[in-house]
Design brief:
The chain has 235 residues and is of the alpha/beta class. It is built from 7 helices and 10 strands. 34% of the residues lie in helices and 26% in strands.
Length: 235
């Protein structure tokens, strides 16, 4: 797996700069927590990494390929956003079988069943459309959808927001498992304690600029993350 490299990436919406000249890289086998206040550019950055948003300036390189909507590497991305990204009138199994097939996964039905078990939904009602699921169940299903094709790059936007404490702990275990498998994991969150629990690397954005980008052997404590956040987001 290759590093994902950003070179001078910026984004402007109707004359407003949402992201300014971000140059950094994301390494396989590492969890990066992206922090910052509302409007700092976190969601824009995640949109650009997912190829759903095109940068106004700069470029993304993944290995020898420029990452964009038209690049072949796009199929190696898994994304969990605020919307679970599933079809409400289909069952959980039907959703995962469909997404596995769309990604060209061998034996998509078997892969769907495997992922349901992994995310703790093996007993989900077989005939129930997922629009009847609780928000927490939908979040687990969204993770299964994002992982069904074993992507190399995993992107998360506030993934624990709909989970109870037990679910949040379970999610952290899943993130660590993906790190151990050598994935690139990028997590946008307002939960500084959660970032401290799981991240190897912390990035802080403020007004579209990258104000901190650091890695610490053994990760960050929750207290260290809070201190970094205060220091690098103050006026």
């Amino acid at each position: 797996m290759n590093e994902l490299v950003l070179e001078g990436v910026g984004k402007t919406y109707s004359g407003r700069r949402a992201l300014r000249d971000v140059s950094t890289s994301f390494a396989p086998g590492q969890i990066t927590a992206v922090l910052g206040p509302n409007g700092a550019g976190k969601t824009t950055l995640l949109g650009i990494l997912s190829t759903l948003v095109a940068p106004t300036t700069g470029r993304l390189l993944w290995g020898d390929e420029i990452l964009s909507r038209s690049s072949t590497a796009r199929g190696a991305i898994g994304y969990v956003g605020h919307d679970p990204g599933v079809y409400g009138d289909l069952t959980a199994r039907e959703n995962l079988t469909l997404f596995a097939a769309l990604h060209g996964v061998a034996q998509p039905a078997a892969r769907g069943a495997e992922m349901l078990a992994r995310v703790g939904l093996p007993d989900a009602p077989a005939d129930a459309p997922v629009r009847t699921f609780s928000r927490g169940m939908l979040q687990r299903l969204a993770l299964a959808r994002a992982l069904v094709h074993a992507p190399s790059l995993l992107l998360f936007d506030e993934p624990s927001a709909a989970l109870d404490p037990a679910g949040a702990d379970w999610l952290q275990g899943e993130l660590r498992a993906e790190r151990a498998a050598g994935r690139i994991v990028v997590l946008v969150t307002h939960d500084l304690d959660a970032a401290g629990d799981v991240a190897d690397r912390v990035m802080v954005l403020r007004r579209g600029r990258l104000t901190f980008d650091g890695v610490t052997a053994g990760g960050f404590s929750a207290a260290a993350v809070r201190d970094l956040y205060r220091e690098h987001t103050r006026d």
